[in-house]
Batch of 2 targets.
Target 1
Amino acid sequence: MKKWGLFLSLIVCLCLTYVYILPIFQDKVEIQQYESNENKISDDQGKTENIVQKEITKEQIYQGNLLLVNSEYPVHEGSVRTDIINLSEHNELVQGYVLLDSESYLSRDIAHKFSEMIADAENDGLHHFAFTSGFRSFEKQQALYEEMGSVRALPPGYSEHNLGLALDVGSTQMQMKDAPEGKWIRKNAWKYGFVLRYPEDKTDITGIQYEPWHIRYVGLPHSAIMKEKDFVLEEYLDYLKEKKKILAKFEDEEYTISYYPFSENMTISIPKDHEYEISGNNMDGVIVTIYE
Ligand SMILES: [Zn+2]
């Protein structure tokens, strides 16, 4: 009888574990760290035909979606997105939100991701989004800095808005920190590759006050990992630097994410026929994301 009881409780436990754990992992990212020197593509390394060598130039440290911009690491001229558009001339991209300024600029790519996100928010019943600020040229940032002062604005070259990868989104009804739109963004932006760049509990790391309106594009799977690990960009880039290489599983896709410090004449190995992205960190190296 006792044995049966034990057996039954074991079965119940296993069922509960199945029921409870499974939904938690859905929609979430699983992260594995490679043991030092273990390399998933090492199996292929003897077969050079399966590997492509990519040369990395110094400029690549300053290009991509993962650039860190803060008081220590300013925007380089080559970092500014080259696909900046004026949203007021692209009605097809301004659906489900209003522009507060007819001079609202953003990277075209990022504008697409943003409108995809807002369309889903609309389906969830959110209808009061406002686009308050996007890309700012260095001249515009200078004017803003002079107008707002150093407490409320960053000097030119030190704002993510100078990249074209960040934007401010508000609510037409109330302050973003109280608005349902703000709550939705906090909960869901990561699914679209965006992160809330200056959260309330990370001001000691970012050095910037809580900004519930400022979102920054980093792309997937990075935004999912940052959400899972509760990292801001400073922490995420430090983490990659420390781990050197991680494997992330997200929505049935696997990604290998590696950090490489820059050196002269450097090349990196990419498995042939795999999609990949290379982004600088704006500090000292590049992050390579390979779709496995
Ligand atoms: Zn902002």
Note: The chain has two domains: 28-66+220-292, 80-217.
Target 2
Amino acid sequence: MGIPAERIERLHDLAREATAEGDVDRGREYVRLARRVSERNRVRLPRRFRRFTCDECDAYLRPGSTARVRLQSGHVVVRCRCCGATKRYPYE
Ligand SMILES: [Zn+2]
């Protein structure tokens, strides 16, 4: 794993921790930083990162706090509670 990939992992953890502490804006800063690292270094964001971040408002999606997660006909539907955007992906 290269250094940019490690930074992204670390930023993901920081975003999760900040959001868990109720600091959604700080979580967003980490999410945006991680996106920037990914773009600058042409490193793909891990699937885990893409699923737990809002594409619309950059919030870290934490089920039960910033996100509502439900299952719908074989899909996981994640709704961002900050901006209302939804994303869905197949249930595994
Ligand atoms: Zn959002």
Note: The helical segments are 3-20, 24-41, 47-51.
